[in-house]
Amino acid sequence: xxxxxxxxxxxxxxxxxxxxxxxxxxxxxxxxxxxxxxxxxxxxxxxxxxxxxxxxxxxxxxxxxxxxxxxxxxxxxxxxxxxxxxxxxxxxxxxxxxxxxxxxxxxxxxxxxxxxxxxxxxxxxxxxxxxxxxxxxxxxxxxxxxxxxxxxxxxxxxxxxxxxxxxxxxxxxxxx
Length: 176
Hints:
Layout: H1 3-12, H2 16-38, H3 41-58, H4 68-94, H5 103-108, H6 112-122, H7 125-136, H8 141-148, H9 152-171
């Protein structure tokens, strides 16, 4: 029995040590990814916490058709999307846009790594999700396809377009 299968078995049995192991094994990775998607560490921490609560409450519904992390990540991705929709709705209600043009962001633009991060954050979520999953999470096209419930060809196309958009933004130096 693989380590993941044993972990799943112990989670389904409600073993406290399995919950600790799950958080230790996937917590930081999930937090990093949620930070990249949400652009806000506190919100990402909330989403990760909500994700693990859902995992603990719904582990019996896990059918093991995918890897455990893929299932957990799909929960986090859905919660992140809900957060982004809620934020967008709130911004529309206020009828104003709160930009990221603070002094700190302007200084960070001069650092290549920060420019890359900024470009990814500002990218359309259609492409951002695929780029984050592929490059930051190291998921395969097939795993991303399963996770996002889209055909592999669609994922490849989004990855190609996302790379081109990112490349154009980086060549412009982050200037719109």
